[in-house]
Amino acid sequence: MGKYQLYTTMGVGFESVVAKELQAMGYQTRTENGRVFFEGEQKDIVKTNLWLRTADRVKILLKEFKATDFDTLFNQVYEIDWAELLPIDAKFPVKGRSVRSKLHSEPGIQSIVKKAIVNKMSDQYHRRGFLPENGNEYPLDIHINKDVARISLDTTGDSLFKRGYRIEHGGAPLKENFAAGLLKLTPYDGTHPLIDPMTGSGTLAIEAALIGKNIAPGSWRRFAFDGFDWFDSSIHQELLVEAKSEIKPLEQPIWASDIDQSILEIAKLNANNAGVLQDIYFKQVAVKDFATDLQNGVIIANPPYGKRLKDRESAENLYKQMGASLLKYDSFSQYYLVGDPAFEKFFGKKATKKRKLFNGNLRVDFYQYWAKKNDY
Ligand SMILES: C[S@@+](CC[C@H](N)C(=O)[O-])C[C@H]1O[C@@H](n2cnc3c(N)ncnc32)[C@H](O)[C@@H]1O
């Protein structure tokens, strides 16, 4: 089985986190803006889709070339041996993106690439007219950056944040891979307690339990590669069995509380779906009444954003309450994802470190308060 040029995509600011995840799995990596490259075989495609917690997608880089006009783009794409990749009935949506390049019309780029593939497949399969495109999906994308085109096959399908354990509800949950990325920015590894005092639908607590128990985050879903006809389908099953055998008991407690009992019920359903309900201690409690005997761990939360709170005053009050009841737990390192630049003032302490992030399109800060007394 051959080697593939592979890369992962991720949210802005999480490149180093994903690179570390890949390195911990034994891969050599090269990082670019929004992408981390590595090499691997089919087994590595399965492994990374199954185990990467912070990435969005894993893609195969099919070809990289310079293209400043549509003829070159067409010819370069036509040259690829498409029949080796796509069966005659393949559905192959093409996503196009162009940044700072001569070829800038994204719909134009998409349709030229599509046309080149259709023409090549028609020639290779000796078939005229339309291709049926009623089979399995092979998602392709063409990305042109400063006149360098990259054409890739997405092995993931639905983004990796869609773990498959979460039920839909109207709240403001963090994406699962974003929550995992935040946890990876803390020292949390399951060997110390973790507390989320504003847990909402439980994403941070559940992702922490998956990390602490060494549960593969992709355990509940299928991936685009499952539908590729040249992909060895036994590998996925094999690695799932292996992953199950590597699950370990949680060493230290995870606490998840919220003021709202109804959202806690959703959090419990999600935790149950993820197989970690018994590992998380859920409790209805307002942050101002929060108390714990636990020590030496991580407190992490994403309080409601200012604009979601009724007014300025209630945001300021909440941050004050958080400061009054959480700051005294100084054997914990504390991490708060907040979209309000005035957070530190009302919380009552300047952060040890702040990290600028984007939660979707929302510019937010990850305020980090490192513990004085423990080994974190
Ligand atoms: C932005 S949501 C958290 C989302 C969560 N991280 C998730 O992924 O589902 C903020 C949560 O803070 C809770 N909350 C608001 N005021 C609170 C308070 N005074 N004490 C405890 N929780 C509170 C809300 O009920 C809401 O569930």
Automatic annotation (TrEMBL):
MF terms from GO for this chain are:
RNA binding; rRNA (guanine-N2-)-methyltransferase activity; rRNA (guanine-N7-)-methyltransferase activity
Q: Which residues cross the membrane?
A: none
What organism does the UniProt record list as the source?
Lactobacillus kimbladii
Q: What is this protein called?
A: Putative N6-adenine-specific DNA methylase
The record's keywords, sorted A to Z, are:
Methyltransferase, RNA-binding, Transferase
What is this organism's lineage?
Answer: Bacteria, Bacillati, Bacillota, Bacilli, Lactobacillales
- Supply the SUPFAM superfamilies for this chain: S-adenosyl-L-methionine-dependent methyltransferases (SSF53335)
Segments forming domain THUMP: 44-155
Q: Which domain of life is it from?
A: Bacteria
Q: Where is the signal peptide?
A: none
